[in-house]
Amino acid sequence: MNNTHVAVNSLQEYDGKEVALAGWLYNSRGSGKIQFLIIRDGTGLCQCVVEKGKVPDELFGELRHLGQESSLTVTGTVRADERSVGGYELAVTNAQIVSASDGYPITPKSHGVDFLLKHRHLHLRSQRQWCIGRVRHTIVDAIRRFFNDNGFVLIDTPIFTTIVGEDQQSLFEVDYFGTPLHLTQTGQLYVESAAMSYGKVYCFGPTFRAEKSKTRRHLTEFWMVEPEVAFTDLDGLLELAENFVSFIVSQVLINNRSDLDTIGADTTTLETIKPPFYRLTYTEVGSILRGEKAKVFQAEQLRQLQDERQQLEDKIAEFEAEQQAGQLKQWKKDKIAAELIELRGALAEVNTRIENNPKHAQLAAEFQWGEDLGGSDETIISQMHDKPVFVTHYPKQAKAFYMKTDTENEKVVLNFDLLAPAGFGEIIGGSVREDDYDRLLERIKDQGLNPETYEWYLDLRKYGSVPHGGFGLGVERTVAWITGEKHIRQCIPFPRMMDKVYI
Ligand code: 4AD
Ligand code: MG
Questions:
Q1: What are the residues whose beta carbons fall under 8 Å from the beta carbon of 335, sequence distance 6 or more?
Q2: 378 lines ligand 1 (CB under 6 A)
Q3: From the CA of 312, how far away is ligand 2's center (Å)?
């Protein structure tokens, strides 16, 4: 092995030429005379055609029986072929097996979630996970690029901390040489200090929350980027957030079309993600939830879900009949089994949504001004909109101590959540910060926090306080929204969830 092998995603540059590929055997099928090896090399998939007589007989035999995920190099001539994955295939003239693999546990037959999480180290090689990982890479790159190109300075904030950033219930305590500390819930308070030094800053790193919720939107360890800006107001923050999110989406559309297509993401909706986004106040959201429009909307959703359920049930019945008809080739049996697992998963999903629909409708109708929006409320509002929605001006009592009170309405704070469309829900939370010393101190005390711990944070309000604010965007939520992935655990290479850490 040396650097003479080429990458699968550059094969179009070598049409008609002889090249070597280095990778792993993703899939293999064939007859006695010809074997099709699908090889993945980390940049893409390539069909490699091995014909008996064109390679030594012994090698043909070895390749024919080579197990899934064996590593190998292959040499051959590149030729364009529309039917091939990636549009090019390799007519193999030689090959070398680097390390044979036998009994690879993840087969093309589908597996359950638990099994796959236990085999996450291997599951990362599967097509869907591979695509999601590439989209995540683009998103992380776009995040850094956006801030770096717009005059923000990167500030690395600590992971061990004394402060409670968001809520006291979700702290991970650590024994720091005998002193109890906890893992950071947010870098915000630290970037606020840095904003008074550099003007525009951001931190970007892992964040920890001992969330006691086993939802598809919560991890206990997730990545968050948090910009913070001196001399800004709520409108300034909303504008920054919508430009930022639109930039991220545009970068994914430029760099990951084929990944999005492979995993069946909805690129048509992504194309429309451009400023301005919708802007609603919390109070307006409350009237929508309680009103007729939401009721009608929920009823229509229910009808659509019931139709969807019928279609899924019909398809499942069709496949089951085929399965029972017998005398199927092994590949066909595997294919049907895989389809059935997919379909049954989708059916379970639809059934849950059907079950939840009336509960969610009821929760919405019973909306009480003063409480934070529930996950289901967010889902309804974001389902009712085709573009992201900013929800602003939440009740003070429902929100963190650092949010600035609206001087025009003391009951609310100058904050916002950004809800991604199509039912996805919150991807950003942010606010203008309380910049008045006395008000901030009062809020700290009100929430039962120890003012001594926050002395340094209060200092910022003593020495040249300015109106400022920022927000936090969750990387995994963003990946899930953009890829259409239902569960956030698929959007980070090694997920940490409340109920289990697998590997
Ligand atoms: O709304 P949150 O809690 O806001 C903050 O932490 C602020 N200090 C940010 C700031 O103003 N600088 O969290 C921000 C985002 C959420 O919108 C969500 O995308 C993500 O972080 N997030 C989670 N992602 C996965 N799992 C969890 N348990 C998450 N909690 C929050
Ligand atoms: Mg939030």
A1: none
A2: no
A3: 35
Check pocket membership of 219 for ligand 1, CB cut-off 6 A: yes
Does residue 224 have its Cβ closer than 6 Å to ligand 1?
yes
CA distance linking residue 165 with residue 80, whole number of Å: 56
Q: Is the pLDDT of residue 144 over 90?
A: yes
Pick from 223, 477, 497 the residue to mutate for probing ligand 1's pocket: most ligand atoms within 8 Å of its CB. 477
Domain spans, the chain: 8-99, 284-367
Q: How confident is the model at residue 328 (pLDDT cuts 50, 70, 90)?
A: confident
Q: What is the mean pLDDT of residues 365-387?
A: 93
Per-residue DSSP letters for 449-487? Answer: --TTTTHHHHHTTTSS---EEEEEEEHHHHHHHHHT-S-
Please enumerate in sequence order all residues whose Cβ is within 8 A of that of 149, keeping only pairs 6 or more positions apart, or say none: none
Ligand 1 within 6 A of 470 CB?
A: yes
Domain 8-99: homologous superfamily in CATH: Nucleic acid-binding proteins (2.40.50.140)
Write phi, then psi, for 481 (nearest 5 degrees).
-60, -50
Residue-level pLDDT at 430: 98
Size (the chain), residues? 503
pLDDT given at position 327: 82
The DSSP string of 55-110 is B-HHHHHHHHTPPTT-EEEEEEEEEE-TTSGGGEEEEEEEEEEEE---S-S--SS-
Q: Does residue 1 have a pLDDT over 50?
A: no
The backbone torsions φ and ψ at residue 48, rounded to the nearest 5 degrees and listed phi first, read -110, 120
**Residue 338 scores a pLDDT above 90:** no
CA-to-CA dists, residue 463 to 343, 437, 441, angstroms: 61, 10, 15
> Of all residues in the chain, what percent carry a pLDDT higher than 70?
99
Tell me, what's the pLDDT at 2?
Answer: 54
Among 129-138, 293-302, 473-482, the least confident range: 293-302
How many A from CA of 319 to the centre of ligand 1?
A: 42
User: Are 224 and 475 in contact, with CB atoms under 8 Å apart?
Assistant: yes
Q: Whose CA is nearest to atom 30 of ligand 1?
A: 218
Distance between CA atoms of 260 and 266, rounded to whole angstroms? 8
Ligand 2 is an ion; its neighbours by CB within 5 Å are 429
Q: Give yes or no for a contact between 15 and 78, defined as CB atoms under 8 angstroms apart.
A: yes
Q: How far does the centroid of ligand 2 lie from the alpha carbon of residue 417, in Å?
A: 6
The pTM assigned to this predicted structure is: 0.95
pLDDT 10s digits, 23-48:
999 999 998 899 999 999 999 999 99
- The mean per-residue pLDDT over the stretch 385-390 comes to 94
**Cβ of 188 less than 6 Å from ligand 1:** yes
Confidence of residue 3 (pLDDT cuts 50, 70, 90): low
CA distances from 181 to 159, 452, 458 (A): 10, 15, 20
